[in-house]
Amino acid sequence: MFHFIKNLFAFLGNRGETLNAMGYDAAGGVLQNAIPTYWAERLREDAIRRAFWGARFEGKEGSNKPIIVNEDFTKKPGETIKFNVVSQLFSAGTTGENTLTGNEDQLALGQYTLTVDWLRNAVAYTKNLEKRVNFNIAQTIRTELSDWLKRKIDSDMFSSLISNASNTIYSGDATTEASLGANDHFGTEEIDRIKLALQRTAVPIRSEGAEGEEEEYYGCVISEIDEYWLKGDAVWNQAQRDAGPRDYSKNRLFTGALGMYNGIILYVHRAKKSAANIQGSPLRPEVRLYTTAGAADTEIIFDVVGTKKNLAAFFSSTGTLKIDNEEIAYTSITAGTLTGTTYRFAGCTRGSNGTTAAAHTAGALITKRNVGSVIGFGAEIAVRGWGMKPVPITQGYDYKFPDGSYFENGLGIAAVYGQSVIKDSNSSAVNYILMKTYADNPISV
Q: Which of 11, 23, 201, 431 is most exposed, with the fewest beta carbons within 10 Å of its own?
């Protein structure tokens, strides 16, 4: 009987190994067998579908979409993917019986290159957690990594667009970022200015209409604070009422749009929250004061070391903050004090720009002087390349169980990927415009 049972378990064990073989092996051992088929593919597709700069703006070369995508799976990390660019034809052509030979226009072919590199992240968990939870860990990790990839794609793209802008204009009657004030909120007049600037510099986004006709649009993305002030604009509200119901179900450019005004589709990219803190967005950086700050303090603390949150990622390395009614110039963003436990804005000059230094309580909102960024864009503003789609990666640690699993496990993804703003031969990013606005929060939340 003993030998029969032993042989039976051996037979069943062999069957399990055969059925669960996934064609992929790594240090995680049998953790690979817990990864569902198409796990990584679904992770990437969900991220691209949900990202702001995702599926609705993507297109291949020649599609006249904002984000030009190229997948070249022969490329290794550190290598470049090439994107072909063709200029418009500007010659007058010939008329009547004039000779065309020798007067033909020429295609100005060019190439834009993008360097791709590794992109990785993972989630670690223990055998104890695996035994206690009542959900599929692999699928939960896929959802969380998909959300991380979505935010990574958007944050990288927004930051690149803002830092590489060649043309910047200002809302209201401001002429510089420093001169922005309470009379310089975002409204329909600002949309008109963005439209004028885009018409003079950018190629429009071309899309197929409901009846198959070609339509041309521009896009504009704003923060939720600029959205608030726009909705107080009577001209905007009347324009949306006059527009009536629209059926844009066949045109994904309108997916999630706030509305349209003067041929520009408006979108909102909202702030992100992190537990009790807030990160704002690349369009309007924001954090909370972690501990009470005295009027003479030269360090403004916003987080503690070890949380793995990059809360100040959207702030520039130097600049000016605003807390309550005080403006504070800073020279660096750094981690560590005498005890090495905090993240902070350091080298602060209190009471900058004629304001008065004051004490501020923990939880107070910290902004970049309430300055917001608005991006108006046309076609071909950036390129995105994939040298390798995300694949699952695993890690096992701390003694192996008889079934081949480990007590501590990690499950993640690795991809070869890159994004870059498109610039012309003069190193100018001409297909989008940056507007700076005064985006003050009317509430304390």
A: 23
CB of 158 closer than 8 Å to CB of 222: no
Task: Decide: 145 and 43 in contact? Cβ < 8 Å.
Answer: yes
pLDDT digits (tens, 9 = 90+) for 348-371: 999 999 999 999 999 999 999 999
Which residues fall within 8 angstroms of residue 265, CB to CB, at 6 or more apart? Answer: 217, 218, 219, 220, 253, 254, 257, 259
Q: Say if residue 65 is exposed, middle or buried (CB neighbours under 10 Å; 0-12, 13-18, 19+).
A: buried
Cβ proximity of 326 and 351 under 8 Å: yes
At 38, list the tokens: 């198409």
pLDDT (tens digit, 9 = 90+) per residue, 379-434?
A: 999 999 999 999 998 877 766 666 666 567 788 899 999 999 998 878 889 899 99
Distance in angstroms (rounded) separating the CA atoms of residues 443 and 319: 24
| CA nearest neighbour of 53 among 191, 158, 162, 202 | 158
The more confidently predicted of residues 29 and 54 is 54
Q: Which of 114, 162, 55 has its CA nearest to residue 429?
A: 162
Q: Please, what is the Cα angle at 392 between 390 and 394, to 5 degrees?
A: 145
Q: Which amino acid is residue 235, in one-letter code?
A: V
Are 390 and 35 in contact by the 8 Å Cβ rule? The answer is: no
| Residues 68, 383 contacting (CB under 8 angstroms) | yes
Radius of gyration of the chain (CA): 27
Return the residue matching tokens 């910047």: 168
Give whole-number Cα distances, 356 to 295, 297, 326, 328, in Å.
Answer: 9, 13, 6, 10
Say if residue 219's pLDDT is above 70. yes
**Which range among 2-6, 74-78, 133-137 has the greatest average pLDDT?**
74-78
Please indicate whether residue 407 or residue 374 has the higher confidence score (pLDDT).
374
